[in-house]
Amino acid sequence: MPTASPAPVPGRRAGVLALWGGVAFSVAYTVLILLLGDRLAQVPHLPDAGASWYYWKLPEPTVWSRLSAWGLYGLHQLVLWGLIAHARRQVKTYTSGLHRVNVLALGANALFALLHLVQTHVWYDGLAQDVSIWSSFGSVAFLLIWVLLMENPRRGLFFGRPLPISREVIGFARRTHGYVFSWAIVYTFWYHPTEPSWGHLAGFFYTLLLMLQSSLFFTRIHTHRWWTFTLEALVLVHGTTVAFLTQPNDLWAMFAFGFGGIFILTQMHGLGLSRAARGSLLALYVAAAAVVYGRLGLGRLDELLRIPFIDYLGVLLLAGLMGAWLRVARRLRGTPSPQVEAP
Fold it and tell me: What predicted TM-score, i.e. pTM, was given to this entire model?
């Protein structure tokens, strides 16, 4: 006999209240990092050794600095994966309010966020001590590429036109995205100590918003087009701001116009904007790029294409890998290929 789905938390506006409550928590947590930042001023660091070097880690890690970071990260990850698996088995339906499992996920993320703050001030190190800085950047980039693939049928990839990616691949991406996104977010969150630099503050605020989104599965707010677009667009703000504050040679322009290009090519076509509005945004993008690169030099125009090229190539590679995996799985199970392949 099938098990009944847990009753949602009463209140049609519970999802909206949870969203704004989560945003308020993210702001308060970021401010708390800033207020407590002076306590970390005496932590020793090795000299900066270049782009592949992560500065904010102990020169001599201890057993407890490693155990606290990896242990709490692992526990955080397993708890969220367990809640996602439970929701996929028992909930399955969307609600305007909250399911009880959403309340548990919100509470778990808030608890582990506070534990990370305490862990930094007691043992300091994050996962950065043992893994490359590129793994942190890569996990978030992988999440954003996955979103582009998953949203291909709804908004297309180039000016509203979808690529001919099979429904089977899109369905697989949607069924598994919760586990993958949870990993990318939680891994990035525990990679960094809760330092008060502007880059860390912006990064933690953005990661907490993604964590909030990952807690709202099977709610209407989880799929609200303007909320999900905001989460995608914030990478433009975050990447541009951090590059402006920390990187030489006006590297901020590559992030601004790279992620801005993805907005023009893809993201704005899922917002229901009029043709005139989309045309105006395209004209504004072209005009801004002409002004900025007229100053920086036309020899740097390739920066406009770097991030979009990586992301769109990533979509094709990811779709190809998923398709290959699904074909292998079908052969192992002895099931026939689906009849309809195009979305």
Answer: 0.89
